[in-house]
Amino acid sequence: MAVINTQIRLASRPAGFPDASNFRIERAPVPELKDGEVLVQNHVLSLDPYMRGRMNEARSYAAPVALGDVMIGGTAGEVIASKNPAFAVGDKVVGSFGWQEYGVSDGQGLKKVDGKLPLSVYLGAVGMPGVTAYIGLYDIGEPKEGETVVVSAAAGAVGSVVGQLAKLRGCRAVGIAGGKEKCDYVVRDLGFDACVDYRSSSFVDELRAATPNGVDVNFENVGGPVMDAVLSQLNTFGRVPLCGLVSQYNATEPYPLPNVAALLWKRIKLQGFIVSDRMDRWPQALADLSAWVAEGKIRYHETIAHGIEGAPEAFFGMLRGKNLGKQIVKLV
Amino acid sequence: MAVINTQIRLASRPAGFPDASNFRIERAPVPELKDGEVLVQNHVLSLDPYMRGRMNEARSYAAPVALGDVMIGGTAGEVIASKNPAFAVGDKVVGSFGWQEYGVSDGQGLKKVDGKLPLSVYLGAVGMPGVTAYIGLYDIGEPKEGETVVVSAAAGAVGSVVGQLAKLRGCRAVGIAGGKEKCDYVVRDLGFDACVDYRSSSFVDELRAATPNGVDVNFENVGGPVMDAVLSQLNTFGRVPLCGLVSQYNATEPYPLPNVAALLWKRIKLQGFIVSDRMDRWPQALADLSAWVAEGKIRYHETIAHGIEGAPEAFFGMLRGKNLGKQIVKLV
């Protein structure tokens, strides 16, 4: 009896904010495995802001998803059939099978994990978002003890790790998030020193009050006016790891950086990066993150949607900031 | 008989482009030397774009020149009297005496030079502008053999060295300058591979044609639309040492950076710097530059004004880009 695989494919490219019409559900039997191939049942799918960029035709980090293709995405699951000697049935694996219930692979890009932590964690704090936080903060932000680190989207999968890594380095960690619930979570559950609600009418004043010694590292996930506010608080020799611009992903006009001269006279380093540029740093980052999560030094929260058909709605919610912590779709 | 010292002092702060009314000439006898002091007759005064920033009250790199104070500036000259055992009459010295004919110092910040090269060179290619080029290009720009380096204000004191340093590193060096005379000088006399006239109506197309493999390092001296054009040509992992924004120094409204998203998806590093941040690098930079100038590997040109009273007009000319190479005021 053939296994039926439900997939979400890109049906059309969005103009502005995406909607359900941009996706198409398809069901097809899983093909027979060839020699060297592995069949994985995906248990969890990761939803991340970068996916919005891949829906555009325009040049972004990487090639766009082609019309009609399965939406890309990180997945974690279990090997349920194998014609590849490197993988056995029952192995827990992380891969990039995208928005579908099953995936077939020749083993390339498939990584076995020990499974000591819940599988979803390998898509979050001990996965791509965690490594993004680690590389962006430690390698580009280079925070020193006693400095102030500000991170936007602080309740998200990356931002929540950034602030905790900053605390581990002896820094003051200040988050920016949308709404009281998220800000409370960031301070109470994650241990940030402060969190400022960017929706507040006195946001700029509150940010100033939360950063009495200015800002040394601005880990930027959001862009737009929130970024402007943090940049204006930057100290001389401040660093800006530019990780994301989620406020801009659905914008049809680019948002400019208002004050280039300040970058000069404050001698700011602003550097765009993506985590796949630095594959050499992944092993160390994953080892550290895995240990710190196991020791409870890094905590995480997940917002969980159920079933592959729920992925588009969960994705829209994440782009609107409705998730707290990592947005996951549970498939099993 | 007292020596009379002619000085140019800041009389008022400019709104927009400065004019003669912002300066005041003063003549006063040189004071009697105290123990430990040195009297220097300045032979040459350096005029540089950063001085415009110091005329403003607004925060810049450093403290502004106070109203009524002598305008700041690098000088080179000769010790003509000394009550400091570290300096003898006849010593050639580089200092920061500003816009005046004589200076008294306790020796701090005064640096003896061997005088093998003309004194003005220690204010140019083997001085602050040369070290600025060296640190900005080599330490922040990190050019690799075969890469393309673009530098704006290419006929200026810093830009002219940047392109030649790029050639020494095995790069393609492309200058941007205003007018055919400067562009010809940059290519024929300095050995750049190409130079594009930013005043040309087809500037953007010409820049594109001059950088067929894109741009890896944009050494930025100018800002504004010229910078936009180069940024749009940047390759993935491009570096932007942000050295100056001379097009903006007289602007009353800041000019924004139009496309922050491109910095992210191209993973650009944009870093503001000033040469005094890295004093530890000066000895190596000066040793290299001095050798390369002596060997003819780095060439330079000077635009020379005569007499301290001519400094303001020469300064206005430099801000308008009328100089070719280093703008010097000869005082002796």
Topology:
2 copies of one chain form a homodimer.
Chain A: E1 4-10, E2 23-29, E3 38-47, H1 50-54, E4 75-82, E5 92-95, E6 102-105, E7 111-112, H2 128-141, E8 148-152, H3 157-168, E9 172-177, H4 180-189, E10 194-197, H5 203-210, E11 215-219, H6 224-231, E12 234-242, H7 260-265, E13 269-272, H8 282-294, E14 302-306, H9 311-319, E15 326-330
Parallel strand pairs in A: 8-9, 8-11, 9-10, 11-12, 12-13, 14-15
Antiparallel strand pairs in A: 1-2, 3-4, 3-6, 3-15, 4-5, 5-7
Q: How would you portray this structure in words?
A:
2 copies of one chain form a homodimer. Chain A is α/β, with parallel strands linked by helices and 332 residues long. Chain A folds into 2 domains: 4-124 and 301-330, Medium-chain alcohol dehydrogenases, catalytic domain (Quinone Oxidoreductase, Chain A, domain 1, Alpha-Beta Complex), CATH 3.90.180.10; 128-276, Rossmann fold, CATH 3.40.50.720. The first copy, chain A, has helices at residues 50-54, 128-141, 157-168, 180-189, 203-210, 224-231, 260-265, 282-294, 311-319, and strands spanning 4-10, 23-29, 38-47, 75-82, 92-95, 102-105, 111-112, 148-152, 172-177, 194-197, 215-219, 234-242, 269-272, 302-306, 326-330. In chain A, the strands form 3 sheets. In chain A, strands 3, 4, 5, 6, 7, 14 and 15 form a 7-stranded mixed β-sheet that branches. At the A-B interface, helix 7 and strand 13 of A face helix 7 and strand 13 of B.
